[in-house]
Amino acid sequence: MTAMTPTIALERAATSGKTAPTPSDLTITIRDRRFGRNEPAGRWWLNNDPVATAWHNALSATFPRGEAFFIEAVKAHRDGVPPKLEAEIRAFVRQEINHTREHVAFNRAAENAGYDIARIDKRVEEMLALTKDRPVILNLAATMALEHYTAMMAHEFLANPAHFAGAEQEAADMWRWHAIEEIEHKGVAYDTWLHATRNWSRWKRWKVKSLMMVVVTKNFITHRIEDTLDLLAQDGLTGAKWKWKLAAYLLWKPGVIRRIFPAWISYFLPGFHPWQHDDRALIGKADSEFPDAVMPG
């Protein structure tokens, strides 16, 4: 792994005429790290569990195209933003570029382990093609909803060690690194949305973002389950038994979908903002476990 680049410190600024709840002392750090180059992940890299491995492989398969979409959706609305938000957007882009690179490498390792993820990638490509001709503000709304998903899962991955218990070290480190940075920049798309829709009524803003979250949720849950079952089928694991095992994994133990549900509900509440829940303590705890995480004074 390489040492991280200098921290990007962000100044306090306003969005839509009001002070955003984004913390005044928030720091977004570019951690330019590389994982699994010498020891790529094995076939069932997560505790030798085919279900857990398939779920995370299915997630990872969506990230390269998905994060490129996030970058473009946010950049399309950066003109005229306050200085703080402009700096946040730059940091967001740099973090997402690094995430894309590492998930490309992780996905390549999954392919080398024998999985065909081309169908997942093709589905993502086809869905993103549908966004080309719609208003760019809707792409930002979709990005905002999906960034909330990544932030919710990032919080859960860092707060609950059960998610990566028994995982191969490099793979677990990659996911924890990604989670750290998703928490750090979880307000960027939302603050960009607040700026881009500053002339909208509160009702219109709430209606569009809420309807988009419903659509995103339906697609996200449905397609990730289908993708996970596809990867399990490639191991010859099919039928009701394995569907129940996947349901138990998502809803019972460790139960990521069940555990993020309260945070998902909060998205629909009036006045919601991602930084109403300041979980930077998780970043400090997880980040300190990386040997090069703390720059010398």
Summarize the structure.
The chain has helices at 50-75, 83-112, 118-129, 136-159, 169-184, 188-196, 202-234, 240-251, 256-266, 280-287, and strands at 8-9, 14-15, 18-19, 27-28.
Account of the 3D structure:
This protein is mainly alpha-helical and 297 residues long. The protein has one domain (45-287): Ribonucleotide Reductase, subunit A, CATH 1.10.620. 61% of the residues lie in helices and 3% in strands. The chain is built from ten helices and four strands; from the N terminus they run ββββαααααααααα. The protein has helices at residues 50-75, 83-112, 118-129, 136-159, 169-184, 188-196, 202-234, 240-251, 256-266, 280-287; strands at residues 8-9, 14-15, 18-19, 27-28. Strands 1-4 form a two-stranded antiparallel sheet. It has a two-stranded antiparallel ribbon with strand order 2-3. The chain is globular and about 55 Å long.
Classify the fold: give the CATH topology. Answer: Ribonucleotide Reductase, subunit A
Q: Identify the CATH class.
A: Mainly Alpha
Strand coverage percent: under 5%
**What is the CA-based Rg, rounded?**
19 Å
